[in-house]
Amino acid sequence: MKQQFVTFFTSLLLAINVCCGEDKDPQVFSTNECQLTEPIYGQKFDFNSLHSDIAKVAKSAKGDTFEYNICGNLGRTCDGKNVAACLRRGDQEFVLGTHHVLNYRHGKMFLEFSNGAKCPNGDGDLKLFVHLGCDYTLDAQQSSVTPYAANACSFYILLETPYACLPEPDAVKSNGCSIQDPVNGHNYDLLSLSDFNYRATDRRGNAFVVNICKPVLYGENVMCPSDSSVCFIQLNSTDYKKRFFNYGTVQPNPTIENGNLIMRLPSPTPCNGTSNYSSTIHFMCDDEKKSSKLSFLGVNECVYEFSFTTPLACNDNPPCTTITHGSEFLDMRSLQGKTYELSMPTKNYTLGICSNAGQPCMANDAGFRLSVKCSPLNIIQVGICPAGKHNIPSHFRFCAVIVVVTTK
Ligand SMILES: *[C@@H]1O[C@H](CO)[C@@H](O)[C@H](O)[C@H]1NC(C)=O
Ligand SMILES: *[C@@H]1O[C@H](CO)[C@@H](O)[C@H](O)[C@H]1NC(C)=O
Ligand SMILES: *[C@@H]1O[C@H](CO)[C@@H](O)[C@H](O)[C@H]1NC(C)=O
Ligand SMILES: *[C@@H]1O[C@H](CO)[C@@H](O)[C@H](O)[C@H]1NC(C)=O
User: Fold this and answer.
1) Protein residues with CB under 6 Å of any ligand 1 atom
2) Does pTM top 0.90 for this prediction?
3) Where are the membrane-spanning stretches (predicted)?
């Protein structure tokens, strides 16, 4: 039975190859350039901006240092040569590649470096793969090395970048994704949930991919419309253009209704002639403080209901503490009550941590926006002046940490 199936499958593949020799899968291609046009929406992903004069650096858990550049060579030599990727291990240097190709595989985009040095532990060459993952919010750590065996010849790095994302709708550019409970003053801040997509099934064999606070992150087999936060995937559809549907357009903030934290997401996708599809996400406090979880509750005509359990929906965290992107509990109570100066070329900022900055932020507007560039991490974030707020807006977390480091 199994044997028969395999034979049938092989001949089917042969048949396809014979009949459509020229017709390649449009979802699989490679280019020597630093940009590509994805085949579903015709959107261009341009990675040229990721090139920098100083290379990107990532350290592995084993202590090896990986240096690579995108669309060009490293600023300094590796084993005496000008190359694009280098492995530094102790005082040894190994060329990982002199150039790269950019590959697209069903939504997955990765750079494959080639022409590396001979692998000391094997027959082939050393190789580096850099997976370009969509991330709308810049994190301190942008490159991470996948753990590998001591004798590995191939290495994998994940580089998270907004350049691997579809364009972000204006409504959610630098959104805070927070809301203050009018009853107890608690500030719910959900933005850090946007680092991941969450999945659920509709119990009929189809899938939902959901992002909270940002559009669904583009990636392998997740090529959702650019403004959708709730994406319905018709898994039995072989036509990629009829596989991903917007069932909920991204919203900048959650809302509070009758004391409950929820997000309502309308969509432009027609449902039954009179209504469009829409989704409602009910946020539930997770007392166990474990990871966040999405569940599909059910559908009522055109309205899909989900629950989302997360510690960020709890309102009993002590003031001046927060949960970080890595679900780590960050306690900044010891920094309270002081002000910190942040000197920038054109402006000086005064920052209060979990308190206001000591004087009115701006005469009559406590909600003005400012751009803060935090060197040396090179993170550009837009934040809201924290006057009067008693929680740290997430945009300030990295800046706040840098300020602490420089005043010590
Ligand atoms: C896919 O599944 C839906 C039900 O979820 C069904 O209505 C549709 O006919 C199926 N399409 C194909 C091509 O099998
Ligand atoms: C449904 O979405 C379309 C956009 O595709 C919009 O023009 C229309 O007003 C929406 N209908 C309803 C009932 O919200
Ligand atoms: C379409 O769906 C809406 C909302 O779920 C419902 O109120 C309406 O009665 C439905 N209309 C038809 C024609 O089924
Ligand atoms: C910022 O503060 C420094 C000293 O603390 C001062 O020399 C500089 O002129 C200030 N810059 C601006 C733009 O106010």
Assistant:
1) 204, 206, 236
2) no
3) none
